[in-house]
Amino acid sequence: MNTQDIIKEQVTTNPVVLYMKGTPESPQCGFSAHAVKILNSCGVDNIFAVDVLLSPEIRQGIKEYSNWPTIPQLYINGEFVGGSDIVTEMYQSGELQRMIQK
Questions:
Q1: Residue 78 neighbours by CB under 8 Å, 6+ apart
Q2: What Rg do the C-alpha atoms of the chain give, in angstroms?
Q3: Per-residue confidence (pLDDT) for residue 101, from 0 to 100
Q4: Looking at domain 3-81, what is its CATH homologous superfamily?
Q5: Strands (E), the chain
Q6: Which of 7, 53, 71, 91 is the most exposed place for a label (fewest CB within 10 A)?
Q7: Would you give per-residue pLDDT tens digits along the chain (102 residues)?
């Protein structure tokens, strides 16, 4: 499987996928830590996290897959949600919680 196939499989077979720097237990950047904190406060305890620092191919591939230049990137039920700023805005408006509950 090529990188794009791997990413597609990850985002379509897991309900909540976060491409991040580090892991939920040990984030390696503030934006990733913030995204994990928001997901945890929404009651998500089954984050499928992909540490992009471990794979340059995934790190670049996810940017191409989503056409989004930054990490972290959140996917819910196969749908690209956005990066840290968008996730924060959606959380503050309650939209993220509604999306997770579906």
A1: 11, 12
A2: 12
A3: 87
A4: Glutaredoxin (3.40.30.10)
A5: 16-20, 48-51, 73-76, 79-82
A6: 53
A7: 899 999 999 999 999 999 999 999 999 999 999 999 999 999 998 899 999 999 999 999 999 999 999 999 999 999 999 999 999 999 999 999 999 987
The CA-CA-CA angle for residues 4, 45, 70, to 5°, reads 40
The whole-angstrom separation of Cα 69 and Cα 15 is 22
Q: CA dist 77 to 8, 49, 100, Å? A: 12, 14, 8
Please report, for the chain, the start and end positions of each structural domain, with discontinuous segments joined by +: 3-81
Confidence (pLDDT) at 102: 76
Q: How many CB atoms lie within 10 A of CB 96?
A: 24
CA distance 102 to 58: 28
Order of strands, sheet of 73-76, starting from the edge strand that comes earlier in the sequence: 48-51, 16-20, 73-76, 79-82
